[in-house]
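A reminder before we start the practical. When you read a complex entry, don't treat the lines as separate problems. The point of joint prediction is that each chain is placed relative to the others, so the output describes one connected object in space. Small molecules and nucleic acid strands, if listed, are placed in the same frame. In the example below there are two entries. Take a minute to note the order of the lines before looking further.
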Amino acid sequence: MNHLTSRAALLAAVPASALALALPAAPAHAQAPVAPEHAASAPATPAADLPPLYADEFARARVFVAGMMEAGVVVPQPRDPGGGYTHEQHKRNYRAILLSGQLYRITGDQAYADYVRAMLLAYADLYPTLGDHPARSNQNAGRLFWQVLNDAVWLVHAVQGYAEIRDTLSAADRERIDSQVFRRAAHFLSVESQATFDRIHNHATWATAGVGMTGYLLGDRDLVERALLGSDKSGQAGFLRQTELLFSPDGYYAEGPYYQRYALMPFMVFADAIARNDPQRRIFEHRDGILLKALRTTIQLTYGGYFFPFNDALKDKSLRTEELYHGIAIAYAQTRDPSLLSIARMQDRTVLTPAGRMVAADLAAGRAEPFPFRSMLLRDGPEGEQGAVAILREGEGPRHTALVAKNSSQGMGHGHFDKLSWQLYDNGHEIVRDYGAARFLNIEAKEGGRYLPENETWAKQTLAHNTLVVDGRSHFDGKVRAASAVAPEQLHFSVEPGLQVSSARVDGAYPGVGIVRTLVMTDVPGLESPVVFDLVTAESEGTHSYDLPLHYQGAVIELGFPVESHVAARPVLGEGHGYQHVWVDAEATPAAGDGALTWLLDGRFYTYRFATDGATRAVLGQVGANDPDFNLRREPLVLLCRESAGGTTFATLLESHGRYDGAAEQTVASRSRVAAMRHERQGGKDIVVLTLKDGGQVALAVSHDPDPGARHSATVDGREIAWSGFAAIVEIGRGGN
Amino acid sequence: MNHLTSRAALLAAVPASALALALPAAPAHAQAPVAPEHAASAPATPAADLPPLYADEFARARVFVAGMMEAGVVVPQPRDPGGGYTHEQHKRNYRAILLSGQLYRITGDQAYADYVRAMLLAYADLYPTLGDHPARSNQNAGRLFWQVLNDAVWLVHAVQGYAEIRDTLSAADRERIDSQVFRRAAHFLSVESQATFDRIHNHATWATAGVGMTGYLLGDRDLVERALLGSDKSGQAGFLRQTELLFSPDGYYAEGPYYQRYALMPFMVFADAIARNDPQRRIFEHRDGILLKALRTTIQLTYGGYFFPFNDALKDKSLRTEELYHGIAIAYAQTRDPSLLSIARMQDRTVLTPAGRMVAADLAAGRAEPFPFRSMLLRDGPEGEQGAVAILREGEGPRHTALVAKNSSQGMGHGHFDKLSWQLYDNGHEIVRDYGAARFLNIEAKEGGRYLPENETWAKQTLAHNTLVVDGRSHFDGKVRAASAVAPEQLHFSVEPGLQVSSARVDGAYPGVGIVRTLVMTDVPGLESPVVFDLVTAESEGTHSYDLPLHYQGAVIELGFPVESHVAARPVLGEGHGYQHVWVDAEATPAAGDGALTWLLDGRFYTYRFATDGATRAVLGQVGANDPDFNLRREPLVLLCRESAGGTTFATLLESHGRYDGAAEQTVASRSRVAAMRHERQGGKDIVVLTLKDGGQVALAVSHDPDPGARHSATVDGREIAWSGFAAIVEIGRGGN
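Here is the predicted structure of the whole assembly.
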């Protein structure tokens, strides 16, 4: 299989044995791991019995391609940045090339092949005339697009469409398109843009995928090997190395879920081509099946279908994206895992490949099973040694509760400075929020759709996240290189019924300050379940100021302490590291004991409560200061501020409670059931004592000792309490433990 | 039929001939206008063949009542305001009395009757001991609740539940409940609270309904007649007079849609009882069928099922409310209008009456037809002489475009000072917004769930609406009495394909200033359809300052003019009439020509453009200043400000355009297609000239002459344009009209 003819390569390079659908005369493709039944039975015209999901996709593609055909072949001189006309037109074109090719395969209708040919001949005229894109903004300029990444995406799509029709061309046309479009594009990506090509980075994955698939199609082993092993074919770069370094052993992609989704497509599509052309590589078994693991992990990194918006992430990205349509189809064809079908059902989309057809058919046959969303620890780093993402879930279905602790590595240039940050989802919403990226993708008026200046000045800063800020400066002083050198350590992770714990520490985010955060999602007798305890300890010899932000969402219902409101002139919180973007609405220094804030979101109440010795200032703020271009969302936050010598611990509780039904005019339990909270540290153990309004008393006791069998004790109000393991809920007022 | 026995009254007072369902021995009720087939065939136990919607309702009621029974009879001493424990418990109790009674009728299970009996005997112990409610906040104190209104609502529900089981009681129990609960409650409402009872107001509708239905049940004609005709039985007050004065001839309720919904339930439920007990009154034909007209009008006053939030309105109120479940069932039983079934389908709820069963059965039988939402003018005032609400709709389905012009009367104490205000809905969202009320209904921590102080200081003020503010003061200086004395005049209303117009004027909102507003929702060649032109003319001899706010929703994408941003210290807009609640983000005085602001909401772009001679200041602001208790939503607005001698006209255009699909990363037409806009007044005619980016030129020409046949002309750039009627779109650049 090493030296394929053009025709065999054609059959192999498209993501399926699929070609048989369109070309019944093609020889049976014995190595094809997918859908031989479809290949055997496929007619040259669309069967009336296409499974519904596939039929929808087919119809959608026909409408799109018909519209494109109606408009003719429009291949403009590149000019605009993201979101601009020429940018969008070249994107439409690669979709049209791919879909028209696939429609040709399915229908055998020559018009589709002719359209792909005409489009690619137009590119053959244009491509050789191009230099760097006029709207480039950095060294990584593309040809057709403002950045080289988009050129790689163009190639990954176009080469798949071309593969479907290349066989139908005259030798002259084929030669012209091969050499003037695909060889040039592959050369541009792999030689002229070698620095990008040889990175260990998602841009390089797209580039290697495009180049490698072009190599398979043109029967050019040199291209293939450079794609797989890097420019120098040493294996120190290239696609295979990327599968080893970009994913952790648990299938976590260092840049975070948003880029994991994006990176996944070239990984899956190129792997599919490798599996077909070089089956002896057993690419889907490579590194303990890392690619299929990564696909499943990508799905785990969602709530309500939306990706956890770590790092530079657009919050409207969900499993309902092109990348995941391809990913699900390819993974299902490899595994026949019925839980992937339920994801396809949620997506309500698939792709026009035999694998997509198989997904649609098996879904229609009722083979779907629920996807097993669950609590899990995803180690980060190529060896799993660079911290982790902890996901704690409780309950089932679209309104279940999920806590995410981001104890992972920096995630390269798109990483945010938010070590040990967390998020909470409940009742279908993001309750404790991550801002994501400051960017309006593809909207020209917003800096050409690129990342906005406020992405640096706000979204990446520590203050924009739910984690500790020391001395008013971001982690690692906001420097990527320093941040990339240090990863947090996951100290403990345990999942038991009614008690889930994640604990991690990071050293080096600030000189001389170690930070340990323990998040406990647990049931507490007398409270609605689950609640979240959060213990953030700064270990330091020196004196520092500590600020702990919580970015919430909802209408403020009740403040449990008197505030000084800045009703007529709101000061700005500070001068840099994101502080310049926060308006101060109100401030308070609650008396010793605890302070609480209750808000309402979509019919559910949330009370955030913090223990204080009387020296913690609470700041209620809103994002939006120093934002002359209205680039930021005007979201609220509460900030706990404390000055301390020799370290400190913030102990807080997030309690969700009650129900507000505006339609039925029913309100239940709109007020917290906690009367008081206090926190004590006893010999390295943390004890949080809650007194409930019904008089009950209960404590969260944390030993920080991961040995589940070890016994621990502490003293509360002169009484000893005892427990086993890292953490426990101990009832006191109702008769002790 | 005038003197019913208790048993006949029982049969009559419940909203159906329904009793037969539970009491098969009951004589056929010849006058029953509804569901004789159900009455004839009904078994004493729930049939397995209950239609699905009714079966769901039955199951839901069983769960609720089982929970209530489990908790026992809990009738607490009244103590708390809205949202508090005793308030909510008494609400739960009246629901339990009603539903348990209905379940008894359906199942014949004595336990349900026993529970109603036990509950009412507990009320018989409590009721005689009660004085004014301790949490009362004004003269209209209730007994069980903080305001008399809730006591009336309690009675309307409880009497229906009682009717279902009264026949099963011993004479002693019946006598005790009759006299200690229902006669006392009726006396409290009709005699002790006579001032409320005799008002022409929705509180009085609930009171008369409760009292009248009690009268029917107890066979007390005196109660019935006082309910129908007022305390003095003169007909100057009471239910019948309310049907004449509270609805306009078009079925519009003066307080607005939110209270129309609320008022509807006692109107419909009591009318249903009247129809049964006093069929000769032909109550549903009274005043040209006003009650059924009002029900249909209530539905027309919605978008996406949500009521237009005029006046004091909570924005989460939709057709999915108890009032409308009853309303639809009763109206359907009267009319068999299949379009009401589609509303029931959207509600996915009904009521446990024979009418509800009929709705469920006919829905299951596939008899539903779409409800005919359409453009319409709803006159306000008992004679239709107090202005109007104009609704302009274009398109179909949940994302259609709807414009609402509020040219109606003040709407009593819940009215806002917003003459000629408007709203726009598009793409499933409220684009140009009305704030609604500042209130968290039933949330105790928010002033006991009552209207908040900010309802007076912000929500009711003119600045909080999309209408003209003169000299920084609200219409009628914010005085209800003055505002109630004046109504706008609807000058013109026309609905033609591609051109819909509402024009109205108001005099007296300000001394010496007349205001005319013309809203045109129209197709414009070269622009996406529809767009909205807005012409607001102030006619005045004197010099005034004029402020025109637009309350939009979305992320600011582009400002078409340079602004001075208050990035580090936002001033407050002003000192009273709502100005104290607005932070100023940015200000600008765009050069002569036009200014534009583009925002993005849910994938759709909106550009608001205004013509200016260079002396109009644009203020970008956000609600939330002087709001120490976080009672206000932090929403954005843009304010056009101008100082002028001898009147002025604001000419604006709202253009919706393009599409942003974050998931597919596709952006289309994110920028306005308008290159320039200007406005001219020529001899009382308004001409708005648009120059499009494609070079085309088009004008909106408004003659203000309602005669559709009259010819008009004007001059644009030296060329004459001509049109007929009130308003027209005239193409200039593509070859004239």
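Discuss with your neighbour: Residues 1-45 of chain B have pLDDT under 50 and may be disordered. What might explain this?
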